[in-house]
Amino acid sequence: MDKIEIIGSVYHKTSLDIVPSVLFEMPQLELLRIDDTHLAHLPSEIARLPQLNNLRLANNRLKDLPESLGQLSKLQILSLFNNRIAQLPESLGQLTELRELWLFANQLQELPASIGDLSQLERLHLSSNQLQALPPELGKLSNLKELSLSGNPIRHFPESLSCLQSLRFLDVRRNSYLDHRQRFWLQKQLPNCSIQF
After folding, report:
1. Could you give the number of structural domains in the chain?
2. Global pTM?
């Protein structure tokens, strides 16, 4: 078996609040999806799933992530939207095969500098968090095509964003701090990108 999906309902969440330990005895598991539950903790044993390339834990109650997450070297998709995550582990940067990172609707206030090490990342969705700044290392994401930052109180965009020459879509809507000068700067630095203000 290479795929496990445990899905509740948006209207009636499954009462599951821990990851069943039997799952960590399945080293060939490639996809783990636990959506719409009461899951509040991801144990460090997640590293015992070395073949995992798709981890989906959306619409839960997660507040943090273990450092061992960085050991999932084959991970390509990490979906953690609509949780309560306030901080990401520095080990996130070790996920060098990651293509998609879905973190919208959490409680993130900052991003680790190691996010710039996600060299294969193509989609980064961070809307509806509490980000006030972005690390300059974000500019190292040379393969990034989509960046969603809407609904964050970002006060300043790093100059390194101009390095994102593969970027084709940028969403910065619902940001009350975005002034005319910053809009002009973004358009000038990212001429091949469709920007939603």
Report:
1. 1
2. 0.94
